Amino acid sequence: MTKQEREQVLREKLQTMQVYERDLRAAGKRCIAGVDEAGRGPLAGPVVAACVVLPEDFDVLGVDDSKKLSEKKREQLYDAILSEALAYGIGMQDNASIDEINILEATKEAMRCAIIEAEQRLREKTGCGIDHILIDALTLREIAIPQTGIIKGDSASLSIAAASILAKVTRDRMMVEYDSIYPGYAFAKNKGYGTKAHYEGLQAQGMTPIHRRSFLKNFK
What we know:
The chain has helices at 3-16, 19-26, 71-84, 95-101, 103-126, 153-156, 158-181, 187-190, 196-205; strands at 32-38, 47-53, 87-93, 132-136, 147-150. It is of the alpha/beta class. Strands 3-2-1-4-5 form a five-stranded mixed β-sheet.
């Protein structure tokens, strides 16, 4: 496949992933936010959510579900999304909150915080608020803004995919920093997920202050 052919495939993908956004704009919605999270499954670290409002003419190629992209590509797209977005917000809940209220509720709270931050930035920049939220698989009853929950939304909606990249890169960078604070668990590589090296660290050293005790009831 030539470079031109690859670019054409990416442009077609970009168009396909904007179907939800196009339908909402056709219905009169101006500012559409995508929301997604990273870090529901790991044994350590926070859950991080992102909310992003993209302009109608957003044309950065390659945006997709963050799990389908290489680390290098995610980093490149992270910078491009921040540069082009009308507004964005990041929310997170740490391991203590996850242990206290459970991972689903912590995820929802992180998303709520991300939406609030993004809307504040959007109002400061444009004078308008978020008209509609596209969100991966969930709905947030405590948020009054109209929402559409989309199963596998990070593969179906450009806005949600962009949010998935912001959330993933933000969290991955945090886990790399934690690796230098808590060596021996391979956090820089596994990002807190339950790999062999991570479990070996737990067996040898026990839990750190960032481990989710509700996920590790067999460890002390």
